[in-house]
Amino acid sequence: MMLKKALLSTLLATLGAAALPATAADTELNLYSARHYQTDEALYADFTKQTGIKINRIEAKEDELLERIRNEGANSPADVFVTVDASRLAKADELGIFAPVKSRLLEERIPAHLRTQDWFSYSTRARLIVFNPELVKAEQVQTYEQLADPSLKGKVCTRSGSHPYNLSLGAALIRHNGTAQAEEWARGLVANFARAPKGGDTDQIKAVAAGECGVAIANSYYLARLMNSDKREDQAVTARIKVVWPNQQSWGTHINISGAGMLKTAPHKEAAVKFLEYLASDQAQAYFANGNNEWPVVASAKVDNPALTKLGPFKADAMPIGELAKTVADAQRIFDRAGFR
Ligand code: FE
User: Fold this and answer.
1) CA of 96 to the centre of ligand 1 (A)
2) DSSP symbols for 69-91
3) Cα of 125 to ligand 1 centre, how many Å?
4) CATH 3.40.190.10 fits domain 126-254+321-338
5) CA 87 to ligand 1 center in whole angstroms
6) How many whole angstroms separate alpha carbon 113 and alpha carbon 319?
7) To pair with 140 at 20 to 30 A between CA atoms, which of 13, 132, 197, 244?
8) In the CATH scheme, what is the code of domain 28-124+256-302?
């Protein structure tokens, strides 16, 4: 096997670049994606129509895809990795799997705080506070920090502290308030739990509506999905809760992203860059963001989503998204010590 490989590379070296077509344009692209929405189908079909590049998709959970890329190593067929959560992209980046992409188009269209040298955000989501007005007062729950206040004892619900969404929020709290204060916050939060963390964000929203919890933290798209739902039971949920954009008077609501990067080992680098640039087009942005009730990152892209329109504008945390990752490990340690599991 090794010998064969060695022979092959010698052969290729001997033949040299001249023997290969000078402009061997990529005709396919291997996409490892942790996203699977119906609107994404339209997105990929449109890309193929525009460029003639066929997309082969491998879809799996975020962490599985990352593990797969690591295991495949230099032989990975992956060209582009698409996933959610800045801490996951940052983890991938730390593992050294991405190649830097220099693109004027991406620099022009994606705001600076939503990209790094190695990966780009294509949509944003906010971590919201939802509350039950029969159980807590609006003025009690205007900030993340307030969720640790003893006045909310037995009222707070959230998913697991080890979930990336909460770890990213913890990382933001560390950046803004310092490690000691963030740890105190985690302890106060745990002391306020109505129940041990369980389920996803939608479960927390439903538990608030049911009165099992007074207040919860949830990503905006889960709420928007309920708001846009025709189902009577979903409408009943949203009718019983109120929504807060946290930290509007201070550092802004914590946001997270869906994003993508080109693999260092990508066999089709030209196609990969084309795809990353395509995702920043107005049309792709609309599909990509709307497919999961998220906000596009490109200012000129249209938001056509009744729930997001209803939720209205808000002040988002302006901290560069790449910065978050630097304190995610600290957030994990703090949560562990505080018993936020
Ligand atoms: Fe999610």
Assistant:
1) 25
2) HHHHGGG----EEEEE-HHHHHH
3) 9
4) yes
5) 13
6) 7
7) 197
8) 3.40.190.10
